[in-house]
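Task card 7
Instruction: Convert sequence to structure tokens.
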Amino acid sequence: MDTGAIASRTTYVTGNAARLAAEKCKLMMYDVAARCWRQAEPARGARPPHLRQGYPQRNVHIGDVANHARVVTGEPPIGSGYFNPATVALDPETGQGKPFATYVYATQIAEVDVDDETGEVDVLRIVASHDCGTPINPMLVEGQVEGGISMGVGFALQEEILFDAKGRQINPNLTNYIMPTSLDMPEIEVDIVDNYDPTGPFGAKGVGEPTCVSTAAAILNAIHDAVGVRITSLPATAEKIHNAIKAKQAEQSRQIAAAG
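Output:
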């Protein structure tokens, strides 16, 4: 049973299951190694790529042990593992509970250039700081963050499903459903926060969905900081921003006229 690669579960849940399965394999390998040494006591530890039994001359390569288990003893080192994090369902009345075993955290800051005459926005730079526990593969984490930001840029500025009066989608393909390309991507600076999580595999947590949660908010906050208008519906198209700027200018003109 696997719920799926969703909710940032893959590294956290599958990783823990794989770790538990590997622990069983390791115990089997220790037992086979002891037979290779003709000793009742199993191996005492591992320092890849060897299993060891007290003295350097008693070390044996893990590959040799695995091959011996498969070919000689007929016991290939195969382990299975299962992991389901402890959670508490949310109370429908109070909203209290613990739906996740652990949580990830992220902060993003966006730098934008807004044309106050047309409303066009150019995202220049995004700095993203993400806590994913211990990064098992830092390069993969960085790529995940960059991919999430690309989705967030589209969510913030371009992507929108449009319908006609009868509820039919009028932009069902990539010729008229606008989404960012590589040319629309800003400069991205990724800061991976190494924060060991005791419940994760080797201290790791997920980094999937959180990579695009902060992006749209950061971009819209940057737009507000640049031209002083708050866009409250997505995507923040040039037309929306232009109309908001014009409305702000008109209101300022009315206030000046009233004050005069």
